[in-house]
């Protein structure tokens, strides 16, 4: 059970994940959690702490945050709604005290968390009491360490350049296309010529051709080095082509003068030319989308998706999926299910079930939340939406993507 700002939430499952020296705990009302990234996008209690503090009594009053990042949030649709970061001034702004203990024993997990709300700032308690089953997700062997902070390579792409060289994109974000790399916190692009794909070690200050780009989207920074233009950077890199996939190793310091990057990847990357398909995906079932109709109505866009390429405006009642979104929110940013009192930000209807703020957050929620992003430029529509753990679909996500020409009415 969790008490989040006065709201009681039943917790049915837990997931334990360790990455880069940090332990992450996801707690959800879903029946079962299997993947950290998928869970993170839903409605969950998310707790993070250094591996060394797992199983210990943590008092936020005495934590050395410079060495031990600890935080706890309640997220709806991937957006933090309530909680505190690993900044002493942050948690003290809302809570009088904050303690956490999480541990595992005999295949069970226990989590006890008590954030006492400060009534002077109208903050209510944030409490968790969980004892039950959990899923452990092992960290990936593919690591991405920037300036000493470690995480995983969660997605890789390969691009075969016109000159025969190969570019590998290694990303910390679980994105689906190269175009979405701008949504990842960090990514690196390493390029080597065809003859260097034997895994040879390339000295970044040496004479062999290469290029390496490190992109930090959090701080809007980009560092680039190449043969003859390495500046003060030192280190090496290598890329080896296998029968299937590639092995890449990067160990460079002095990128952009101050940054260091250590990365390792061994796997089969996605072709960079692959585009995200126009489709609805539910539990590995894909429904291709061949028609989109956008109807402007007051403050909202109503968007109807069809597998039937011959569908018309008279067929909206039989759309494979429909979506209603505030025009003011359709600017390309991620929009969760919310209601500010003037109207719903987002409503999604699929398989005769409607998903909105009320339905996903009531006493018997029909999903764990959801979100969408949309842009409309003339008749060019770009939209992506997700309903997380839809009950009617067996707790599977409903994912929708469409990019292309739409009928705009």
Write structural notes for this entry.
It is a single chain. With 409 residues, this protein is mainly beta. The protein has helices at 36-40, 88-94, 357-361, and strands at residues 2-4, 7-9, 13-19, 22-28, 44-50, 58-59, 71-76, 79-84, 95-105, 108-117, 126-132, 135-137, 143-146, 149-152, 155-160, 166-171, 186-192, 202-203, 211-216, 221-226, 234-241, 246-255, 259-267, 270-271, 279-282, 285-288, 291-297, 300-306, 321-326, 335-336, 346-350, 353-355, 370-377, 380-390, 396-405, 407-408. A hairpin with a 2-residue loop joins β33 (370-377) and β34 (380-390). The two termini are 47 Å apart. The model has no long low-confidence stretch (mean pLDDT 89).
Helix/strand layout:
Elements: E1 2-4, E2 7-9, E3 13-19, E4 22-28, H1 36-40, E5 44-50, E6 58-59, E7 71-76, E8 79-84, H2 88-94, E9 95-105, E10 108-117, E11 126-132, E12 135-137, E13 143-146, E14 149-152, E15 155-160, E16 166-171, E17 186-192, E18 202-203, E19 211-216, E20 221-226, E21 234-241, E22 246-255, E23 259-267, E24 270-271, E25 279-282, E26 285-288, E27 291-297, E28 300-306, E29 321-326, E30 335-336, E31 346-350, E32 353-355, H3 357-361, E33 370-377, E34 380-390, E35 396-405, E36 407-408
Parallel strand pairs: 3-12, 15-24, 27-36
Antiparallel strand pairs: 1-2, 1-11, 3-4, 4-5, 5-7, 6-9, 7-8, 9-10, 10-11, 13-14, 13-23, 15-16, 16-17, 17-19, 18-21, 19-20, 21-22, 22-23, 25-26, 25-35, 27-28, 28-29, 29-31, 30-33, 31-32, 33-34, 34-35
């Amino acid at each position: 059970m969790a008490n989040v700002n006065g709201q009681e939430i039943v917790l049915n499952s837990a997931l334990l994940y360790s990455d880069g020296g940090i332990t992450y705990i996801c707690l959800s009302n879903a029946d079962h959690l299997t993947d950290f990234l998928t869970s993170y996008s839903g409605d969950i209690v998310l707790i993070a702490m250094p591996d060394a503090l797992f199983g210990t009594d943590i008092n936020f009053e005495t934590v050395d945050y410079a060495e031990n990042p600890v935080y706890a949030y309640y997220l709806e649709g991937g957006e933090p709604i309530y909680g505190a970061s690993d900044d002493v001034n942050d948690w003290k702004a809302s809570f009088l005290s904050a303690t956490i203990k999480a541990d595992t024993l005999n295949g069970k997990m226990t989590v006890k968390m008590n954030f006492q709300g400060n009534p002077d700032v109208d903050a209510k308690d944030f409490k968790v009491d969980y004892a039950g089953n959990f899923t452990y997700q092992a960290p990936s062997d593919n690591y991405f360490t920037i300036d000493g902070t470690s995480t995983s390579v969660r997605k890789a792409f390969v691009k075969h350049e016109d000159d025969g060289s190969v570019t590998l994109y290694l990303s910390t974000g679980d994105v689906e296309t190269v175009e979405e790399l701008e949504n990842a916190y960090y990514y690196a692009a390493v390029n080597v010529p065809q003859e260097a794909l034997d895994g040879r070690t390339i000295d970044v200050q040496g004479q062999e051709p290469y290029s390496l780009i490190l992109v930090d989207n959090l701080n809007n920074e980009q560092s680039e080095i190449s043969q003859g233009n390495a500046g003060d950077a030192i280190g090496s890199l290598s890329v080896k082509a296998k029968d299937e996939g590639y092995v890449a190793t990067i160990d460079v310091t002095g990128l952009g003068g101050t940054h260091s990057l250590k990365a390792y990847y061994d796997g089969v990357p996605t072709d960079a030319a692959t585009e995200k398909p126009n489709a609805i995906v539910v539990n590995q079932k894909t429904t291709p989308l061949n028609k989109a109709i956008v109807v402007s109505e007051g403050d909202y866009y109503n968007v109807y998706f069809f597998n039937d390429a011959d569908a018309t405006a008279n067929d909206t009642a039989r759309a494979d999926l429909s979506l209603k979104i505030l025009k003011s929110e359709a600017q390309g940013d991620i929009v969760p299910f919310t209601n500010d009192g003037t109207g719903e930000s987002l409503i999604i209807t699929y398989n005769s079930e409607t998903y909105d703020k009320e339905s996903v957050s009531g006493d018997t929620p029909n999903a764990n939340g959801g979100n969408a992003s949309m842009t409309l430029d003339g008749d060019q529509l770009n939209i992506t939406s997700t309903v997380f753990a839809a009950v009617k679909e067996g707790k599977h996500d409903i994912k929708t993507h469409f990019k292309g020409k739409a009928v705009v009415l």
